């Protein structure tokens, strides 16, 4: 597929529609709701109608001695940015410790603020999420990119308690 | 045609001569914003007038002149500025009322059309609550008192502003909400009108022109059925008053709401027209200063319409600005405006029908439809469509357009919507069509 047009296309537009994003949009990862789960949340962007249903269960590794790991499944509908964000998020957080997943989410939120203020983003933590840097230049699309991350945060708060999720922030 | 002294300057834009003998370049020169560029120097192709229209310089000047010369709180004080401000506000009311063939005393100014529709809806909620405790109500207010078993009828193509307030009325009063559906070709389904609007119906609230489909609904049979069963007939005319001649008497409506900012006027002002005897029977909505007759610590009595419904210092500058917009439209002639937009709508529909992978949501001909055209592109979400269009300088709205149930009716999550106004020309439509092609290439669907 060809995501470039050349003719008069603003480099900002192509910066937003990174090949990584378009790939995840066309070939999303992790789709389909699965059981069992500890909680299910449904988030919508009321401006555009994009929606995500997300199920989260936390599994404790090492027979109960290790950290709680994220086990995720979701169904989502919407634009390329929200769909790709959900797919990338799944890749990044599935099977990783919850604290790590929440930290990636925090980095992603930080990245989405980068058009309006100086941000401190740890690219290593962010991983493929860095592909969404161009989205921050389009305020109307930031909510699309954040939709799955907000759903994950909400689900985590329901399972482990809001104070744990909040406590993970600075 | 504009005779404004300000109709000079600005870039010359190509605008093929219209068959209506309408001078598009001249009109465009009256809208300062059309001179700016967007997204790296591209001409602004503004196709989002159904969300809000742009404003001619006369409107901006009128608001500014009010603040520079006559600014004072309306209907208060006896100094010269207060007199002038009050006269400017009431003169604006006369002009705006005249635009739709109404008497000035039957026109209420609100914050926007949403508030106007809420005013109508709260007449029912408030009358019902007051009736339940035996409080005083205006003569004739019985028709606003609801009880379980009563019904309110809307349509499946309402903007949320003419749906959610009625849902709220039902929740608070026990009345039941019903609705008229939409046919597959985007028309109001009137086949069950006689059954759905019946002797239990207290309100029939209908959009005149759909903000998503562009469909213009036939008010006559609806008004007749409402009258037969004694229901109040409420019309949301936000998308029709700015584009076609509307005479309140011809509509058969009891109440009509529309907004100022969609008809070249300022933001912050909407209108509710009502038949005099209907307004007189309505209890107040927002209460406080300047809507009262007598205030005592124990209780108060209320002014006659329209003051009864205009609590607080009103938006005088916006009223003056809206009157200037009305004068601008009258100078062009609403028949000329309507003919220009109709011709352009036909051109847009024709060009869009030629595209493969693009579907129009709504009527595909100009018969009983306005220049608001929703569409979807195969394989590309509406948000992404809007993004590439925006990159080409083409401003459209994307999403559910505050008409979520209408989207669901057609099985779409979101649409892109191009909406025309008096300052649009074929070059705008051509830019849209080109940008749709670019979108399809960008996402590899063509």
How many strand segments of chain B? 17
Structural class of the helix and strand makeup of chain B?
A: alpha/beta
Distance between the termini of chain B: 42 Å
Amino- and carboxy-terminal Cα gap of chain A:
41 Å
- Rg over CA atoms of chain A: 16 Å
Helical amount among residues of chain A, as a percent range? 40-55%
Spatially, the strands of the biggest sheet of chain B line up as 4-10-9-8-7-5-6
Attribute tags:
heterodimer, A: 170 residues, alpha+beta, 3-stranded antiparallel sheet, globular, B: 446 residues, alpha/beta, Aspartate Aminotransferase, domain 1, Aspartate Aminotransferase, domain 2, 2 domains, 7-stranded mixed sheet, 4-stranded antiparallel sheet, 17 strands, 15% strand
Describe this structure in words.
The complex is a heterodimer of chains A (170) and B (446). Chain A is an alpha+beta fold and 170 residues long. Chain A is built from 7 helices and 3 strands; from the N terminus they run H-H-E-E-E-H-H-H-H-H. In chain A, helix 2 (19-26) packs across helix 3 (80-93), helix 3 (80-93) runs parallel beside helix 6 (139-160) and helix 4 packs antiparallel against helix 6. The longest helix of chain A is centred in the last third of the chain and has 22 residues, at 139-160. Chain A is globular and about 55 Å long. The termini of chain A are far apart. The model of chain B is unreliable at 1-18 (pLDDT under 50). Chain B contains 14 helices and 17 strands. With 446 residues, chain B is of the alpha/beta class. In chain B, helix 11 packs parallel to helix 14 (426-442). In chain B, the strands form 5 sheets. Chain B has a 7-stranded mixed sheet with strand order 4-10-9-8-7-5-6, with helices on both faces. Chain B has a 4-stranded antiparallel sheet with strand order 13-14-17-16, with helices on one face. In chain B, strands 1-2 form a two-stranded antiparallel sheet. The chains are: A alpha+beta (170), B alpha/beta (446). Chains A and B meet through helix 3 of A and helix 12 and helix 14 of B.
């Amino acid at each position: 597929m060809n995501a470039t047009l050349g003719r008069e296309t603003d480099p900002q537009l192509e910066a937003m529609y990174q090949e990584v994003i378009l790939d995840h949009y066309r070939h999303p990862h992790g789709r389909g709701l699965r059981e069992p789960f500890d909680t299910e949340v449904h988030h919508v962007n009321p401006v555009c109608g994009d929606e995500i249903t997300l199920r989260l269960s936390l599994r404790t590794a090492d027979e109960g001695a290790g950290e709680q790991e994220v086990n995720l499944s979701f169904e989502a509908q919407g634009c390329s940015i929200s769909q790709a964000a959900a797919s990338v998020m799944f890749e990044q957080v599935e099977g990783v410790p919850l604290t790590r997943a929440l930290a990636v989410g925090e980095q992603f939120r930080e990245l989405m603020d980068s058009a309006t203020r100086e941000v401190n983003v740890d690219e290593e933590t962010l991983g493929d999420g860095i592909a969404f840097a161009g989205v921050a230049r389009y305020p109307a699309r930031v909510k699309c990119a954040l939709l799955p991350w907000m759903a994950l945060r909400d689900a985590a708060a329901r399972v482990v308690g809001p104070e744990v999720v909040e406590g993970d922030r600075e | 045609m504009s005779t404004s002294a300000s109709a000079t300057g600005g870039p010359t834009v190509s605008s093929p001569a219209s068959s209506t003998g309408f001078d598009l370049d001249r009109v465009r020169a009256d809208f300062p914003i059309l001179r700016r560029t967007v997204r790296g120097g591209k001409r602004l192709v503004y196709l989002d007038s159904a969300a809000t229209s742009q404003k001619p310089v006369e409107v901006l000047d009128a608001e500014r002149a009010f603040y520079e010369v006559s600014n004072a709180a309306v209907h208060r004080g006896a100094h010269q500025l207060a007199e002038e401000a009050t006269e400017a506000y009431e003169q604006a009311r006369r002009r705006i009322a005249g635009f739709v063939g109404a008497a000035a005393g039957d026109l209420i100014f609100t914050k926007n059309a949403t508030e106007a529709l809420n005013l109508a809806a709260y007449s029912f909620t408030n009358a019902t609550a007051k009736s339940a405790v035996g409080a005083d109500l205006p003569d004739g207010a019985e028709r606003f008192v609801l009880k379980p078993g009563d019904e309110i009828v809307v349509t499946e193509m309402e903007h949320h502003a003419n749906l959610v307030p009625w849902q709220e009325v039902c929740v608070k009063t026990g009345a039941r909400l019903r609705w008229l559906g939409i046919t597959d070709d985007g028309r109001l389904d009137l086949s069950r009108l006689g059954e759905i609007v019946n002797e239990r119906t207290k309100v029939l609230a209908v959009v005149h022109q759909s903000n998503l489909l562009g469909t213009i609904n036939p008010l006559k049979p609806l008004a007749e059925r409402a009258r037969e069963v004694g229901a109040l007939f409420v019309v949301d005319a936000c998308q029709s008053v700015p584009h076609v001649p509307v005479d309140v008497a011809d509509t058969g409506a009891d109440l009509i709401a529309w907004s100022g900012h969609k008809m070249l006027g300022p933001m912050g002002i909407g209108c509710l027209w009502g038949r005099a005897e209907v307004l007189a029977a309505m209890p107040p909505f927002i209460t406080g200063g300047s809507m009262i007759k007598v205030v005592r610590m124990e209780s108060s009595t209320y002014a006659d319409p329209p003051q009864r419904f205009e609590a607080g210092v009103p938006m005088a500058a916006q009223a003056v600005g809206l009157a200037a917009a009305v004068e601008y439209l009258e100078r062009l002639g609403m028949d000329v405006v309507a003919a220009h937009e109709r011709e352009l709508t036909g051109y847009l529909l024709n060009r869009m029908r030629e595209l493969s992978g693009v579907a129009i949501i709504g009527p595909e001909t100009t018969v009983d439809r306005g220049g608001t055209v929703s569409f979807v592109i195969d394989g590309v979400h509406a948000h992404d469509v809007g993004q590439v269009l925006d990159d080409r300088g083409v401003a459209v709205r994307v999403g559910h357009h505050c008409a979520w149930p209408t989207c669901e009716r057609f099985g779409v999550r979101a649409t892109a919507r191009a909406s025309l106004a008096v300052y649009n020309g074929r070059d705008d439509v051509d830019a849209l069509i080109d940008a749709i092609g670019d979108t399809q290439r960008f996402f590899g669907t063509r």
